[in-house]
Structure formats: C-alpha cells, structure tokens
Specification:
282 residues, three-stranded parallel β-sheet, Rossmann fold, 10 helices, binds NADP nicotinamide-adenine-dinucleotide phosphate, 2 domains, alpha/beta, single chain, six-stranded parallel β-sheet
C-alpha cells in the first residue's frame, strides 16, 4: 500500500516553524489580497489565506473591487499596493471576472511582491533556473516531496496539465530539480502510454478521477492536484483507491496538495518581507 503524502500534517508543522521564524525576525510581513467580484469560491479562498496569515503572525489586508471593475482600476489597485512600503506580498485572487485582462493585472504585480509567482518576470526566472518566487501549488508539492525524502533527480516525471498556475511551473521546478520531464495536455496522443512511463506523476487536469490505475506505473509517486466538487464532496483528479494500490506514494484529496499551497504562500510572503528588508538571500 502506498505511503500517504500527508500535506495537512506537513503544512501544520511548517506553519508552526514559520510563525517562530517570523516572531524572531523582528519583521512585520504583510499580505494584500485583491478580490474582484463576488464569486463565493474565490471569497472562501481569500478568507482561508487571511486565516493562515493570522496563524503565523503575518498581517493581512483585502481590497475588494466590484465584478464590473475595469482592468485599469484593478491594475491601479495593484500599483498602489506595489508602492505601499507596509505591504510585503500581493495576491490577486484568480479567476478574475470576464472582461478583465488577467495578463495585464498579473504583469502589474511588482516582482519583489509577487508571492503567487505568476508574473512573466517570476515565470521567466523560474524557467531560467533562478526562481525568486515560485507559484505556491507546485512549490508546495516540491516541499512535500522533499519532506518525504522523495528526490526527483533522475526520475522520469510526467505532468498532466500546462496551466500557468500549476502545470508549467511544476514542470520547470521538476526540471530544475533534475527530473526528466514530460508535460501532457488535451492534445497529447496516447496519454496513458506516456503516464505509464512516469516514476513521478502529477495530475493537474481538473477532471474528477481522471487518472485511473491503468495509467499508472507500478511503484510510481502520484501527486493529485485536482480539486473537483462531486455531489458536494471534494474529489481529486486521481481515482484514489485503485491508484493507491499501484503507487509507492500518493497525495490524498483533501489533505494533500491544498494545505501545502497555503503554507507556501505564507512562506513566500515572509521571504518577500525578508527580501525587501535585507535584499535577496544568498
Ligand atoms: N490544491 C490546490 O491548491 C490547487 C491549486 C490550483 C489548482 N487546483 C486544481 O487543480 C486542477 C487543475 O487546475 P489548473 O488551474 O491547472 O486547471 P486548468 O487551467 O483548467 O488546466 C487544466 C489542464 O489539463 C489539461 N487537460 C484537460 N483535459 C485533458 C485531457 N483529457 N487530457 C490531457 N490533459 C487534459 C488541459 O489541457 P489544455 O491546455 O490542452 O487545455 C490543461 O492544460 C483543478 O482541479 C484545480 O481546481 C488545485
């Protein structure tokens, strides 16, 4: 039976350590979230991020804009937060309402405050192998693997999905960690043939139980990023029980990747505060 990669337990431990580091630092990290519109799921995610901030003694503010805000208003808000010396990190909650130019908003976030790691500069640095801030979900996955002593170096890794928040940065992080990486997407031919090669398989598809046991190599490490609502329950992209029979290690949903994402956001925000106070760490 597979080892369960317990993101909840690991994130709790890391948040406790982070709170101690913040208390000892004498710094006052502060996260600003920007929420546009009244999507209940987005509002919930923002609330969870503020709760995590409170737990680790990171200050936080939220700026809410109406759903019919214009792109230049959202960009203006981001620019004000860029210039505010009290703010260490900025997170624009995605998805943005239709009609707002997401790329323009993401691009407006100053690199030294880009704790989500989505701006083109952050992405470019990540792909160049010298990341400043890496997107929280894939970076949290790397931390989780490290906590369980799973080193991607030399492994054949397959990532299903190529979004800017998960698939692409996941591939870059795995490559930076010396894995041999293949990225799959909706145009990939013989997907199961590719995924069966994977010693490390990351599923970020957004389709419930998409990855079946027949797609998984015996002994693979399987990371399930998916968060799909099915009959009111949270279900991953991996058909958990049969896949767990074949895998050597697997993340559960919930309690796997999700908590690591939030913990990483907190770590990135503290790193941003340190960066602004002292310059880049060696
Ligand atoms: N736990 C967390 O903290 C966390 C964070 C972020 C996201 N998520 C979850 O992770 C999942 C993925 O999120 P995302 O933002 O990456 O989603 P996304 O932007 O919708 O991307 C999904 C990717 O899956 C690919 N895909 C879709 N159908 C496919 C198929 N039949 N075969 C192969 N590839 C296929 C798409 O390919 P194309 O590019 O060709 O369309 C796309 O690249 C969602 O369930 C989301 O809720 C969880």
């Amino acid at each position: 039976m597979a080892t369960i990669l317990d993101g909840k337990a690991v994130s709790e431990k890391r948040l406790d350590l982070l709170r101690e580091s913040i208390d000892e630092s004498g710094l006052a990290p502060r996260l600003a979230t920007v929420l546009v519109g009244d999507d209940p799921a987005s509002a919930l995610y923002v609330r969870m991020k503020h709760q995590a901030c409170e737990r680790v003694h990171i200050g936080s503010i939220n700026v809410t804009l109406p759903g019919d805000a214009r792109t230049d208003q959202v960009v203006g808000t981001v620019n004000r937060l860029n210039e505010d010396p009290e703010i260490s990190g900025i997170l624009v909650q995605l998805p943005l309402p239709r009609g707002i130019d997401r790329d323009a908003v993401i691009q407006a976030v100053a690199t030294e405050k880009d704790v989500d790691g989505f701006s083109p500069v952050s992405m470019g640095l990540l792909v160049a192998g010298r990341p400043v801030f890496s997107p929280c979900t894939p970076a949290g996955i790397m931390t989780l693997l490290a906590e369980y002593g799973i080193d991607p170096a030399g492994r054949r890794a397959v990532v299903i999905g190529r979004s800017i928040d998960v698939g692409r940065p996941m591939a870059a992080l795995l490559l930076n960690a010396d894995a041999t990486v293949t990225v799959c997407h909706s145009r990939t031919r013989d997907l199961a043939g590719v995924t069966r090669e994977a010693e490390l398989l990351v599923a970020a598809v957004g389709r419930p139980r998409f990855v079946t046991a027949g797609m998984v190599r015996e002994g693979a490490v399987v990371v399930d990023v998916g968060t799909n609502r099915v009959d009111g329950r949270l279900v991953g992209d991996v058909d958990y029980a049969p896949v767990a029979e074949r895998a050597s290690a697997i993340t559960p949903v919930p309690g796997g990747v999700g908590p690591m994402t939030i913990a990483t956001l907190m770590e990135n925000t503290f790193a941003a505060a340190r960066y602004q106070a002292c310059g880049p760490s060696p």
